[in-house]
Amino acid sequence: MLGGYRIEGRRAADIAASVERAVGSGGLEPGQLLPPMRELAVELGVNPNTVAAAYRVLRDRGVIETAGRRGSRVRPAPATTGRDHIRVDVPEGVRDVSNGNPDPALLPPLAPAFAAAAAQGDREPVLYGDVAVEPELERVARDRLDAEGVPGGPLAVLSGALDGVERVLAANLKPGDTVAVEDPGWGSVLDLVPALGLRTAPVGVDDEGPLPDDVRRALEGGARALIVTARAQNPTGAAVSAPRARTLRAVLRKHPDVLLIEDDHGHGIVDLPLHPLAGATRHWALVRSVAKAYGPDLRLAVLTGDGVTVDRVRGRQRLGPGWVSRLVQRAVVRLWEDGGLDTRAVAAAYGARRDLLIGALAQRGVVAHGRSGMNVWVPVPDETGVVARLLHAGWAVAPGARFRMSAPPGIRITVSDLGEEETGRLADAVAAALVPAPARSYV
């Protein structure tokens, strides 16, 4: 059952560690069935309750999943491996349109903002016990959120959107709770939820955001939280429209105790307005990072939400990193205020590249999606074959398996730095890759 690997240990912690090491090293593969608890207990010479406790720890850590009489098995994407291993190795000479990065040419220069922030730090050094949120950043962020219809609430500053999502989930849920997540959706979230010991309930997505009927079923089925990408959804480019927002708010109001988390990482690179769902439930949070518009290495996101949720996040943050560098916060304020980034021009550039590729694919009979952001999602019948054929043709795309659970297969293409002259060649390659080669006859 386990091939050449032997689970070891006599305490629950040791047994769990043995399994976790094997998963991390590849000794136990994703989806591999583990021995029944009583059988493993006999083999190790321990009480079955000890093995049960070990399996419970592994389940809470997101390493394994249990299905009653069908037994326990390593998760298809265990928390110790993550979905980033489902990627294409890009050989030399192959054009990489798989990475999800912004176009460096569209990022603003950082040196002036950091020089000004450092000079301010020399004049007004930040010391232990000072406030965690730069007052000017709080003012600017709150003004923008107010203008977009986000309900009033306290602010926290965190190290990116995923950091915000993780802290909100950890502050409000307990292992075993279910979280409704977009499918297809951001692979890091799909990894994070089980890593926190939480269960996932997939929710379908179309160009206007999460499907209301799927959300309704997930919440009626007991989901304690819902994560929604407001705009520039990864990988499909979906953006929550005004009609969809009204419908989703109506669904959420019937489940007021559900935790709502909105991810607006697309702020600054999209030209579609925000239609927030915030306030439809008692506990909510909206997180907005600067990574896509100003650079992935600026590890900063603003989070707002109801008072209880934000207070819990702040309290836990104080016991860990304490705060996000106010030097970075001050630099971000200057980037926001000094007009170093024309967000309309950036959004227009990404939009033109998306539309050009989607249009070129449509001319070749290929359906693609990309309402906002820097990615295009192409449904395909045979994900592995299409990815391989594109790689052979000189194009590296992201396999859809990185972003989906039960959703149909697809590929993600990042258009952020895709040149106009390349678009037609890429569309030709995608169309050709969707037509499988004729079978050879050996008669």
List keywords for this structure.
443 residues, alpha/beta, seven-stranded mixed sheet, three-stranded antiparallel sheet
Question: Layout of helices and strands, plus pairs?
Answer:
Elements: H1 12-25, H2 37-44, H3 48-60, E1 64-66, E2 72-74, E3 95-96, H4 111-123, H5 135-147, E4 155-158, H6 161-172, E5 178-182, H7 187-195, E6 199-203, E7 205-206, E8 209-210, H8 212-220, E9 225-229, H9 242-253, E10 259-263, E11 283-289, H10 291-294, E12 301-305, H11 307-318, H12 326-337, H13 343-363, E13 375-379, H14 383-392, E14 395-396, E15 398-399, E16 410-414, H15 420-433
Parallel strand pairs: 3-14, 5-6, 5-9, 9-10, 10-11
Antiparallel strand pairs: 1-2, 4-12, 7-8, 11-12, 13-16, 15-16
Helix pairs in contact: 1-3, 2-3, 4-12, 6-7, 6-11, 8-9, 13-15
Account of the protein in words:
The protein has 443 residues and is an alpha/beta fold. 40% of the residues lie in helices and 14% in strands. The protein has 15 helices and 16 strands. It has helices at residues 12-25, 37-44, 48-60, 111-123, 135-147, 161-172, 187-195, 212-220, 242-253, 291-294, 307-318, 326-337, 343-363, 383-392, 420-433, and strands at residues 64-66, 72-74, 95-96, 155-158, 178-182, 199-203, 205-206, 209-210, 225-229, 259-263, 283-289, 301-305, 375-379, 395-396, 398-399, 410-414. Helix 7 (187-195) links the parallel strand 5 and strand 6 (199-203). The protein is globular, with a radius of gyration of 23 Å. Mean pLDDT is 91; it is low at 439-443.
